[in-house]
Amino acid sequence: MIDKNLIDLINKDIDKTISPSEKEKLSQYLKENPDANVLYNELLQTEHMLDKLEDIIPSPNLKERILNSIDYNLYSTKKINSKILDYLLSIFSGSRTKYAVSFALGMIAGLIILTVIFYNSTFHDELESYNTSGTIGLHKSSLVQTIDIFSEDISGRVDVSKVNNFYGFDIKLNSQDKYRLIIEFDSANLSFDNLSLNDLNSVSLEKGLGYVQISGSQDLNYSLSFSAKDLTSEKFTLKILKENRELFKKEFFVSKN
Amino acid sequence: MENEDFKLVSDCLSGNGRSYEVLVEKYHKIIFRLANKFAKDFDDAEEITQSVFVKAYENLKDYNPKYKFFSWLYRITVNESINFEKRKKSVEKISENFRSVNDDPDKIYDNNALSDVITDALMELDMLYRMPVVLKHFLDYSYKELSYLLGVPEKTVKSRLFTGRQLLKDILVKKRVL
């Protein structure tokens, strides 16, 4: 059994931290204990042996490999954002949630499409309503008067519609002969805007102060539109003439409401 | 130097990854040499070194500037070497069952290079004793510093150091080197 004090002294001597007085003490002890002296020498040699270990140099690319295995985002602010994103993604990663999210996205997409369709439709209506080259949007207008026409030479129907301060006349007439259709109106408040043909047959148009005249023959289908400056009740007179003979005449009012 | 290391560490924590490259450049060779004293195999030592720097980076926020940065790296190296050896031993245990009967048990003596024999002797030493022997010899650290690195009291350091030296001596005697 080696004395604890001897252990300390040998350690200190090998580590070169021994004081002169301790070194003297150690030498004296080793002289008196040959076994301890053998051990001491072998331990010194062992320590010297360690000096003979070759100094091995690492691979030239070790540094590169180390740097490549570092996650540099660990301490960057982007990482915090990424963590938030990861958290959000983890919420949506469940299968039920996935379906719910898909459904919600589908609904949103559907709403967007419907909004676009509705917007286009509204925009188109406005064009039709306020642009003098078009006819009023029928689906937004209300039918205010229907006039059935029956005479020996001509028959048909005139539908009068209104939206805001716009008036539309949808005219469908059947005749084998030439005729003139005249609409008289108050030019102080009303003005004729447009004629649009709803079939391939041609007509001729004549505009004057307070009236508009359409001349045609055969079966015709066309529309007329008027706009009013002020929203008041309007009086219209519808006449159909064959040559100079009046076949049909009707006066009617369209109230401002 | 310590202030310089601490500044680099602070820079890293502020998101400047380039600062860590400076630390890796500065210490990777010395960490490798130390790891190579704990692990005989060259590749193992490089793996340990790589692992040390990855662990150090991941735990940089826990670094206590009270200690020198490289002492902290040495401490991680000690822990990583112990863990590496544990993992390797468990793998070797499994592979022992499949070892070829043609393996020559005296193969170790084929290499006459003294360095290799001493390295082999060190590897035969249990990690518990190899650590203080290697750290004391190659780093020339005080018992107090070794106490920090090994996480044991100074008294235990002294005791393990002496036992380690004795055991290493016995192994070298057995190998007829002494």
Number of helices of chain B: 8
Q: Any idea how many domains of chain B?
A: 2
Largest sheet report of chain B: none
Mean pLDDT of chain A: 81
Supply the number of helical segments of chain A.
6
Overall 3D shape of chain A: rod-shaped
| Biggest protein-protein contact in the assembly | A-B, 35 and 48 residues
Radius of gyration of chain A: 53 Å
**Total strand segments of chain B:** 0
- Choose one word for the global shape of chain B: globular
Query: What is the subunit arrangement here?
Result: heterodimer
Please report which band the strand proportion of chain B falls in: under 5%, 5-15%, 15-25%, 25-35%, 35-45% or over 45%: under 5%
CATH architecture of the largest domain in chain A: Sandwich
Largest sheet of chain A: 5 strands, antiparallel
The amount of helix of chain B comes to over 70%
Query: Which H/E pattern describes the elements of chain B?
Result: HHHHHHHH
Rg of chain B, rounded, reads 18 Å
Query: What is the CATH T-level topology of the largest domain in chain A?
Result: Immunoglobulin-like
By secondary-structure content and strand pairing, the structural class of chain B works out as: mainly alpha
CATH-derived architecture of the largest domain in chain B: Orthogonal Bundle
Strand-and-helix sequence of chain A, N→C? HHHHHHEEEEEEEEEE
Question: Could you walk me through the main structural features you see in this protein, from its secondary elements to its overall organization?
Answer:
The complex is a heterodimer of chains A (257) and B (178). Chain A is α+β, with helices and mostly antiparallel strands and 257 residues long. Chain A has three domains: 4-51, no CATH class; 68-130, no CATH class; 138-254, Sandwich (Immunoglobulin-like), CATH 2.60.40.740. Chain A has six helices and ten strands, in the order ααααααββββββββββ. In chain A, the strands form two sheets. Chain A has a five-stranded antiparallel sheet, with no helix packed on it. Chain A has a five-stranded antiparallel sheet with strand order 6-7-4-9-10, with no helix packed on it. In chain A, helix 1 (4-14) packs across helix 2 and helix 2 crosses helix 3. Chain B is built from eight helices and no strands. Chain B has helices at 2-13, 17-38, 42-58, 69-96, 114-124, 127-139, 143-150, 154-174. At the A-B interface, helix 1, helix 3 and helix 4 of A face helix 2, helix 3, helix 5, helix 6 and helix 8 of B.
